Amino acid sequence: MPGWAPSSVRRGGGGSRVEAPVTVRGYLLCVFAAFGGILFGYDSGYINGVLGMNYVKLEFGHPGSIDPSAYQGHLYATREKSLITSILSAGTFFGALFAGSLADWVGRRATIIAGCAVFSLGVVLQVAATTVALLVPGRLIAGIGVGFVSAIIILYMSEVAPKSVRGAIVSGYQFCITIGLLLAAVVDQSTSTRMDTTSYRIPMGLQWLWALILGVGLFLLPESPRWYVKKDRLEEAAKALATLRGQPADSPYIKDELAELVANYRHEAHMQTGWADCFRGGWKPSGNLRRVVLGMALQMMQQWTGVNFIFYYGTTFFTQVGIKNAFLISMITTAVNVGSTPISFWTIEKLGRRTLLIYGAIGMLVCEFIIAIVGTVAEGSQAAGYCLIIFTCIYIFFFASTWGPAAWVVIGEIFPLPIRAKGVALATASNWFWNFVIGFITPYMVDADYGNMRTKVFFVWGATCTLCVVFAWLLVPETKGLSLEQVDRMLEQTTPRNSSKWEPTFSYADEDAKTGPGRASGVEHLEHSHV
Ligand code: BGC
């Protein structure tokens, strides 16, 4: 059933190599890994609700607290609360970096499955915990697993997806993150009044189900053909491609796609693949350093849109500025997040990544400045309250349909194969690092006994979103409709601002065919082998 999915293939001489038509089965195979987003979203979301539960305060807290949020005088020390929350980001940060090496060594799929196993171990410790001393290592180990999963899923999905729907497929990952966040809110809410260990053991134990589904499901899927090419295992690469594209391994589609992967890899194979190589190549758009900085900065800027201020601190912030039903409003923002993300499945291919990033940031900054200005001039009024709620929802709509997915899509596309695993890992680690930093500092900006900025904090997010516009306009190239190999060539030949107009007039395989080495020595023999 070709043609049913959003498609964005660019024309041009080299683009004439036609990719196999995208079938529903092929699409579903590629999109399955997106399920890992549930792990990401659920894990970052569930702990807030759990820490707010009365039974958890009794079990994990200490008596004698006079804080109004204590339950029967029981509460955790501030440093414990912050440690329990933030240790996950520390784990994910290191997990993502380590996974960058592992994914080159044992494969993308195997690294994600290993991530699920590590994560499961962390979950066992968390469920068993009745003290902070066991909960913290549990969160740390689970975090390492989430780090593996969150970095390598982007890599895997970008590498297995057909180019015409790659953006839509990777956006599915963001969609799952939003579902994970929503699920966490719903599960927390439904167990929050239980006065026994099931109040927290149910939300914690459920994490394991997501890891199980992902790990077992991936076990049945093929490894990334690009990893096989990197390892010079061409027959397996052909088999994996054939399964993913729903074509026989000796079909011309598979041979052509594989020839291009092999030729491109040979073209780049002189590059080394160590960590230090990620920082070579200088500031030209095709240099490794420039690409790594772009990926890391993109994920940093995604965090500086301020989105997690709403998801991590929304409930307390809405209460602080006098909004009743703060919990309900938080649920609504989470639901808007889920509901708006699928729009990107289509727009990311039709309008492109760069356009979404530029206009999405403009949409967000307008909402943020409106909230800040109205909240400052009419502080405490009903109008300011409505304004905050409505524009927060519109702001989340813009995030979810643009920066949420596009930041992940772009980091899967901009790195050349020799450093792709490490590049994606560094960018993902940057996401977690800034996630942690911003999560850590925002309470100091808004809490009454510190910065007490109230809605003025949106001036900060408005300003950082303005930087996001400038950043996207100056530095983010348009990658839609190109194979990952064509993206390499595009970065060598044009600038980010002109990238949307670039058309592939070249293919590595054609060039190799002219000059000799690639097809003949690499792929041609597969015609005679049993793949
Ligand atoms: C971000 C997360 C955020 C989530 C919200 C993701 O793309 O990286 O930090 O919580 O979107 O949907």
UniProtKB/TrEMBL annotation:
GO MF terms, alphabetically ordered: carbohydrate:proton symporter activity
Cellular component terms per the entry's GO annotation: membrane
Keyword Membrane among record annotations: yes
Compositional bias segments (type: Basic and acidic residues): 522-531
Main location class: membrane
Region (Disordered): 509-531
Entry keyword annotation includes Amino-acid biosynthesis: no
Pfam families: Sugar_tr
Subcellular location field: Membrane
Family matches, as CDD domains: MFS_HXT (cd17356)
Transmembrane segments: 26-47, 83-103, 110-134, 140-157, 169-187, 199-221, 326-348, 355-377, 383-411, 423-446, 458-476
Membrane topology: Multi-pass membrane protein
Protein name: General substrate transporter
Species annotation: Massariosphaeria phaeospora
